[in-house]
Amino acid sequence: MNLLRQKRILLGISGGIAAYKSAELIRRLQDQGADVRIIMTSSAMEFVKPLTYQALSSYPIHTDLLDPNAEAAMGHIELARWADVFVIAPATANTIAQIVHGEANDLLSTVILASRAPLVVVPAMNQAMWANAATQANMQTLRERHINILGPDSGSQACGDVGEGRMLDVADIVAQLGDVFKNDQLAGKHVVITAGPTREAIDPVRYISNHSSGKMGYALAQAALEAGAAVTLISGPTQLTTPERATTVQVISALDMHKAASDACQDADIFIACAAVADYRPIDIAEQKIKKNDDEMSISLTKNPDILADISHSHDSLFTVGFAAETHDLIKHATGKLERKKLNMIIANNVGADSSTGFNTDDNAVEVLYQDKTSIKQQSFAQCSKTILAKQLITFIAEKHPS
What we know:
This protein is of the alpha/beta class. It contains 15 helices and 19 strands. α1 (19-31) packs across α10.
């Protein structure tokens, strides 16, 4: 499985001679299908000009913390939210010390503090600096904080010394970076996920639907795969690329999705209903295109079956997770659905007109309500990329799922 495909990688380049290797790293990450954006420190720009990395990545290079133009476009907080993983390569002794001590005196260190993405540090420095007690103490602190460390390697260095401290080879960085996304939280489990909208036909060319892009459901499917689960993704019409190694069932209508989900859940452990299913469908579907003759047209609708409620009520041992996309009274409506549909968990998000999250966005923020013995508890997940949020939600579901 290519775990870097379609991942958003923020690459921080600090000031060491190994910065020249970062150009090759950008290329190899792109070869894996990753989207790469770059932050450079002022000292890094002394080794390699930003134009080099801009030409390779096809994006402007972020360099200044207080650049008005950058803040007006993708500011440092948005940049932190954008990333699925934050890689510092090369990470000099100074940058490592900044991370350990929580400094925020330039763009790179500030975004590190603001990011919720997994942090990967790739050390690169002179062998004596690497062996120094202060550096080793800082590295131990990073390990205690569960920060991912790749390398360093041993061998000849630019200064003429030989020893440990040189930056890991690019091929090894790329190979090991995928492990950041891989875990065994759901190993041996079968997870069924619905995603995207449904379309309810009016005539051969028209239909009723909604604004769901499917991004959240697809991100959950990818996160579940990375957690070791066998995944069945039941998708309404989207423009998204299906996750590798997921069993994907493409459907159109709510009735199609109901049947596909019912079939897939026969041997499932977890059912996550993320799709935005149409509540109603036209009673009669015209066989030919309806002509525009009158000023008004009436369409009689009938209620679609409730996929989540039907499956939850018919599978007592299935761990069921619903989604509640609401424009108001978020917690009230989500709690009602949790109880009425007899769910184990519901993930609620605001899709109102004033919301920057939800349908057709790359970010999301949710409230999770779940049954805990005799009471309902609530857990908040702050705004971040849907990829990162999906990993957080899969981890949370794995923790609450009875093994």
